[in-house]
Amino acid sequence: MTVLSLPPLDLDAAGGVGEEDSPLRSVATAVAVLDCFADEAELGATRVATRLGIAKSTACRMLAALATGGLLERTGSGRYRLGLRLFEYGQLAVDRLMLRDVALPAMGELRELLRETIQLGVVVGTDVLYVERAEAATMNVRFRSEHRRNPAHSSSAGRVLAAADPALVTAILERGLQRYTPFTVVDPLRYRQILASTREQGYATAREEFEPGWSSIAAPITLTRGGRPHPVAALSVVAPTSRILGPRKPAVVQGVRRAAARVSADLERARS
After folding, report:
1. Which one of 18, 110, 133, 135 has the fewest beta carbons within 10 angstroms of its own beta carbon?
2. Selecting from 3.40.630.10, 3.20.20.70, 1.10.10.10, 1.50.40.10, what CATH number does the domain 14-83 have?
3. Around Cβ 52, how many Cβ atoms within 10 Å?
4. What mean pLDDT is predicted for residues 51-66?
C-alpha cells in the first residue's frame, strides 16, 4: 500500500488565529484530519487532537461530521478509518482525467469533420463544466471562450446527462429553471418531456437557450456500471444555429453520436 507524503497544513494561515468557528478554518481542519489517515489506518479523537494540536472536543466533532458525510467510517473499537466515499471521489477524479486524455483524438477528428467547436462536458452540481474544448481553426465566428460552465438545463450536454440521472433532474428542478434567452425552456413539464425524448433518440439539442444565435447537439459518453451503460460525460458540438440545426443537422447528429460511442469504447478499454 502506497503511503502519501503530504505537507503539513498551517491551520492558523488557513483560518486565522482566533477564528476557530470560521467556515474556512473548519474546512482546513477537516482536510488536516483526513491527512492524518495518510499513514495510519485507524485513529481515535485523542490521537488526532495530539497530532494537530487541537482540542479533543474539536477532533471529536470533526471526526463525527466527516463520518456522517461518508468520508470516514467508525470502527467497532470506536476509532475511525477512511470511508468509501473518499475512494469513490478518487476514482471519479481518475476517471475524469482519463476521460479527457481518451476523448481528445475523437474530438479532434470530429472538429475536422464538422469544422465546428467540440466540447467535452461533465456535471458539477447542477451545471455542466466543459473540461476540454476543441475549436475549429477555420471558424469565422468563435463561441465565446469564457463559457466554460453552463447551467445543465439550458445545454444539450446537460440534457443527455440528466436524461439518465433522476437525482440530477430533481436537483435541477429544485434550483429552478432560469431563463437566459427567449428560447430557454423554463416549464418543468416541458423540460421532462425533452429529457424523455433525449432518452429515446440518444442525443439532445439546445436551440439558443443560453446565448442568442448559438445552439448545440450532444451525445452521452458512457461507462458500464452494474452491467448497464451509464453516462459519465457528454460530447457536444456548438455553433451558430443555422450551421447545425439546419440542413446539416442529420450529419452533425451522426458525427457526434459516433464520436461519443468511440470515446465510450476507448474509455472502457482504458479502464480494463
Report:
1. 18
2. 1.10.10.10
3. 19
4. 92
